[in-house]
Amino acid sequence: MxxxxxxxxxxxxxxxxxxxxxxxxxxxxxxAVIRQAVAGYIQQSKAGRGENAFGLWKKxxxxxxxxxxxxxxxxxxx
Length: 78
Description:
Layout (H helix, E strand, L loop, with lengths): L12 H14 L3 H18 L16 H13 L2
């Protein structure tokens, strides 16, 4: 069973009104929408840490050292 911790946040009035509209459309509580937003933010933050990049080049038929040398050679030509 998931436990919840009560958290108090301050929102500007325009955000609170927009949040109220979203809750009315979805017919869910303000807390549920905020939990969804926080979960999405956490997921987005994790994506930026590089986990999604692991194995990105594995299907490419490229010699990594030769590719690196080629890139560095471009620096010398400046």
